[in-house]
Amino acid sequence: MDRNELARCLRDWRDRLSPASIGLPASSLRRAPGLRREEVAHLAGLSVDYLARLEQGRAGNPSPSVLEALARALRLTDDENTHLFHLAGHADPRISGMNRHMTPGVHRIIDRLADTPVIVLDEAWQLVAANPPATALLGDMLGEPARQRNLLWRHFTGMPSRVVATPEEDAAFERAAVADLRAAAGRHPDDGPLQALITDLRKVSPRFDQRWQSAAVARHMATRKTILHPQVGPMTLDCDVLTAEGSDLRVVVYTAEPGSSDARTLALLNTIGTQTFTTPTSWAQPFTDDAAP
User: Are 45 and 159 contained in the same domain?
Assistant: First the structure.
């Protein structure tokens, strides 16, 4: 680990980001054009003290999940992301496992969807990021442990959900989701988090294990879901899955038919939901396991 070079790069990458690039208002009170340390720490889900120690070359080896969160918050390119992992003494996870890096291009695309609920998943159905409308729609999972931010783990272990479905709809979703996960396992046989998820799900959920043994393989692309929101009531939305080229991430966009009652309910939620956010944020909040080493 090259602590001094890592510290220098983190400071330089933070200084080059303007407040406007992450949705913050410009202010004449800023001493420098870049982001404040507190803002990057918030975006990465880290403590300010830990980020300060990293930027001063005083912290121990940051974990891969911390590095992934920093790469997303700082909007690093692929080459910069590889360099970040190298400086921290880790192999680039894209070489042996799933590529979970969010490129600046993906950030910019989703910046344009500020009024639309959007989440980002990896191919293991792990929640990587969610914008404020998605948090208002689905609930805030920022404080959840890593495993509980996996959508399939939540479903097959019976965790609370705002999605409502008939038994037939549940069964159809499970068949499609497990087939999709099996296809991902075939593409990424050496991805540790993915293989651990499958092993643990087979242990705790007989229903998952039964579906896993069916050996179906498919790619999950789109569906419709009815979501019962505690404030605005039910709405049925289209969930379209877009592939982020150059990575193993999926962008899931929730929309309603224009002019429908569902569209009006979603618009109402966007109005009241965003008012609950008291801290300025960018288009999305990253999800990470670590607040400190």
Answer: no
Residues 80 and 219 in one domain: no
139 vs 132: CA distance, rounded Å:
10
Q: Provide the residue range defining the domain that includes 10.
A: 3-96
152 lies in the same domain as 13: no
pTM score over 0.70: no
Contacts with 31 (C-beta within 8 Å, 6 or more apart), sequence order: none
Cα–Cα distance between 242 and 216 in angstroms, integer? Answer: 22
124-172 pLDDT per residue, tens: 999 988 888 999 999 988 668 889 999 999 999 999 999 999 999 999 9
Q: Does residue 252 sit in the same domain as residue 113?
A: yes
Which pLDDT tens digit goes with each residue over 230-256? 999 999 999 999 887 778 899 999 999
Which tokens go with 107?
A: 């950030």
293 found inside a domain: no
Sign of torsion over alpha carbons 14, 115, 173, 161 = positive
Residues 6+ apart with CB under 8 A from 126: 146, 149, 150, 151, 193, 197, 287
CB atoms within 10 A of CB 224: 9
Residue 119 makes CB contacts below 8 A (sequence gap 6+) with 127, 129, 130, 131, 134, 138, 251, 252
Q: Is residue 76 left, alpha or beta, with left meaning phi > 0 and alpha meaning psi from -120 to 50?
A: beta
- Same-domain check for residues 13 and 129: no
Residues 157 and 211 in one domain: yes
Q: How far apart are CA 224 and CA 272, in angstroms?
A: 23
| Separation of alpha carbons 15 and 2, rounded Å | 20
